[in-house]
Each structure stands twice: as C-alpha cells, then as structure tokens.
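The record is passed on directly below:
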Amino acid sequence: MPLGHGQGSRHFKRSDEHKIGLFYLLPNSWLDRAFSGLKDDSKARDWWEREDWGRLLKLKGHARAEVVFSERFKRELGYKSVQPWPIYEKKSGGKTMYFMIHATDHPAAPGLMSRAYRKAVLTDAEFQQLALELRPWIS
C-alpha cells in the first residue's frame, strides 16, 4: 500500500478500539502526468507496492479513487468504510485536483465526514437546507 508502512493499519489499533481513521490525498489532476514522466517503472511499483500499478492508468477520476484506492483500503487495511471526496480547483467547482480518501471503521465517522464535507463545499443556504433534511438521522 502506498502508505509506507508495509504492515497495514494493524499497528494503529488496539484489540478493544477502532482503528485510527485515515485521510489519504490522491493527486487526481497530475497523477497521469507524473506516471508518464517516469523513465523507470520500478519507482511506480515501489510506491504502489504491487505489480498492478498500471491499473491506475486505465481508470480516471472518481473511478480510480473508488475502484482502485478505496477497495484496496478496505481489502488490505481492513477499513469498513472508505469514501473518496473530491477537492476542487475552486470553491465554485471546476477541475478535481485531489480526492481526499477517508477511511474509518467507526460507525459514526462516515456521517460526520459527510456533514463536514458538505459544509465546506455548499453555500450556507444549501447547507442549512441539507442540515434540516438530515436532522432526523444525525441527532
């Protein structure tokens, strides 16, 4: 896993607790360019720690974040919930610069992350409307 730990997340969890949540910033806007500039594929294999790193090049955007990264975080690191959140070029939207991948096994964390993300990207009026609609489920 491109986390540099090799042993996954088992070092971050006591048997009686949830694992520490993980935020991973996936550089969506320049990852393809970075790979195309490699003269030696071994750097990509070392970063990805597997031979199938070329699979990353076949998928783009949200599909890459969801199919490749999120599934790997679930399967290899054992997180119950993994969600990629787009980080846009501008507050008003535009190009997806990064995906902030949130991995957790705490049952409350996905809802809290969703609320925080929506507050960051929605206008105040949109957020207030969403908060009213979600109130029965988050209180």
Notes: The longest strand covers residues 93-104. The first helix runs from residue 31 to 36. DSSP finds six helices and three strands in the chain. Helices lie at 31-36, 42-48, 55-58, 61-77, 109-121, 124-138.
